[in-house]
Amino acid sequence: MSDGSKPGDRLADRGNRTVLALEVENIVKRFADDSEPVPLWQRLLGRRPRQVAAVRGVSFQVPEGEIFGILGPNGSGKSTLIRVIATLLLPDEGTVRIFGHDVVRERTAVRQLINRVSVEAAFFKKLSAMENLMYAARLYGLPVKEATARAGAILDRLGLPRKKRVIPLEELSRGQQQKVAIARALMTNPRLLLLDEPTTGLDPKSKREVQDFILEAQREHGATVILTSHDMEEAERLCQRVAFMDEGRFVALGTPGELKAQFGAHPEQSLEAVFLACTGKGLGEEAGPDRVLEEVSA
Amino acid sequence: MLMQELRRSALASYGVAERSFRLVKRYLGWEVVWLVYSAVSTLTIGLIGVSASRAGGGEAAAGQNLTLYLVIGALLWNYLSVLFQEVSNAVAWERWEGTIEYTFMAPIHRLVYLAGNSLFGLGYALLRTILIFGIAALWFDMDLSRANWGAALLVLVSSSLSFMGLGLVAAVLPLLSPEKGPQATYIIQGLLLLVAGVYYPVDVLPEWLQPIAAINPATHTLDGIRAALMEGAGVAEVMPWVLKLLLTGVLLVPLGLWVFQVGEQYAMRTGRLKRNG
Ligand SMILES: Nc1ncnc2c1ncn2[C@@H]1O[C@H](COP(=O)(O)OP(=O)(O)O)[C@@H](O)[C@H]1O
Ligand SMILES: [Mg+2]
Closest ligand 1 atom to the C-alpha of A81? Predict the structure, then answer.
């Protein structure tokens, strides 16, 4: 589905009109409430489990080339929204279009335009970084040599030593694994990159490196990025606009500066305080990396 | 355009198979364990043949025949169960590794992915079976002078299509239920082989199981291969089994694909693929 244009062309294009990378309209996603499962005999009698909405009517648009942040505590629905955009979950209501392609009806076209990095490293952990990258190159129909060379260059840039790329991934630190995940995603040249808490649980140095790299990807490749986080500093550093998400809804949306003004905070005050003012809750309480890691290993 | 698309799909399928073979290399310790275990169980079953013919005071030829009969059963049990498991549990494996969403988000048709898994299952099951057969051939004095290898191979290849189809149908279970799905596939595999006369003619089975045995592809595989290896049946003589196996395969593979895609759609609606993160 690529139109064969280079990122530079697309940026030039933006001078005339805004290209929308992402259009989300009134997305609703419900799940069966598994805190009260319905016994089999009752299900056979037609009783359905209670549904709870993880995303309750979210709409927004992102122009090409922007880094857009979705901020919210654990369980607010960020990952569910990302999965709907990533063609991994079917929405119950609403539509999502990526560069004009509907995520439900034009799934394959959409899949060629996107890639996603999730909070946990989705790898074959006994295989090396290089082997995982080769697998990804084949799935995306890229010439293996070229693609792995590109990924290698990204890993050079992220400072992952060469000898770490040929040993099983499980022997790498989480920060190093996350760098490989980002290299794998960028290797396919996605026009829309979905980053679901890419820095959660990383040490401060790795976090910084990954953030710098996201900025660089945007500057040099014109990538559009949707980023979820519960790190307000990160959002302020990376994102042109951010949305606050709480209990499945966007409760505020704007540039960090606009949000601060809207909720009467000082420009120097952190977004954390703004979020508290907006929702009456902090982000920290149950949102620490510990809990995320616990969930992942469970 | 079409050629390019086909080439791309073939390479993606190959990529899936290649990745699985690489994983086998990394779990080499376990591979050795399974190989030793399967070889030993094949040998013990062959030894039943040796001792039974001795107890019967029969001729050497009859003993050789019984041993060969049993060894073929053990080898095919191995081959078909490995193939079935690799195909049906590929999803469970990806879920366990945590790669399922990454793989399912790739811009390839599900058929391409499943074909890659089947390709791997086929190669892997064949390699293992040849190795164990080599070990058994060294150990036992089996009379293979009349064996028609070409006909045996033809039956084996035709049976693979059927078992891939069965594996694909069963693959939906691990997709829908991470825990109970894989468990169910083992039960299905066991039943398929019970009702197939691995070590006995199917007419010793209870009456009510006989119709199932008659449509079970494992039964036809065992009958066809035994005829080729023990009685020297040629290609023309094994053709009835080959046709039945191919027909079953041609029906089961598309059915499996369809069931899998319905299951995937359901999983994407209800959030069964994955929920963490
Ligand atoms: N696959 C799923 N099945 C059932 N419930 C889910 C699933 N995924 C998420 N949920 C529920 O939806 C809510 C939002 O979860 P999630 O989108 O993961 O939030 P976040 O990423 O902001 O932490 C949570 O209550 C979670 O338990
Ligand atoms: Mg999340």
Answer: 17
Nearest CA to ligand 1 atom 20: A75
The whole-angstrom distance between B141's CA and the closest CA on chain A is 41
Say if CB A213 and CB A182 are below 8 A apart.
yes
The string of DSSP letters for B98-159 reads T-HHHHHTSSS-HHHHHHHHHHHHHHHHHHHHHHHHHHHHHHS----TT--HHHHHHHHHHH
Distance CA B60, CA B218 (A): 29
pLDDT in tens, B144-167: 888 999 999 999 999 988 988 899
**Are the CB atoms for A127 and B20 separated by under 8 Å?**
no
The predicted complex's ipTM stands at 0.87
Q: Is A70 helix (H, G, I), strand (E, B) or coil?
A: strand
pTM for the model stands at 0.88
pLDDT in tens, B72-95: 999 998 999 999 998 888 888 898
Do the beta carbons of residue A27 and residue A93 sit within 8 Å?
Answer: yes
Nearest to A141 among B12, B101, B271 (CB): B12
CA A139/CA B9 separation, integer angstroms: 9
DSSP state of A168: B
Residues of A in contact with B4 (CB under 8 A): none
- pLDDT tens figures, A229-249: 988 899 999 999 999 999 999
Nearest CA to A235 out of A257, A217, A205, A216 is that of A257
Q: Would the CB atoms of A124 and B14 count as touching at under 8 Å?
A: no
Percent of chain B with pLDDT over 70: 97
Low-confidence ranges of chain A (pLDDT < 70): 1-17, 284-298
Q: Beta strand pairing status for A93-98 and A20-32?
A: antiparallel
Q: What is the signed CA dihedral for B198, B202, B205, B208, rounded to 10 degrees?
A: 120
Cα(A191)–Cα(B240) distance, integer angstroms: 54
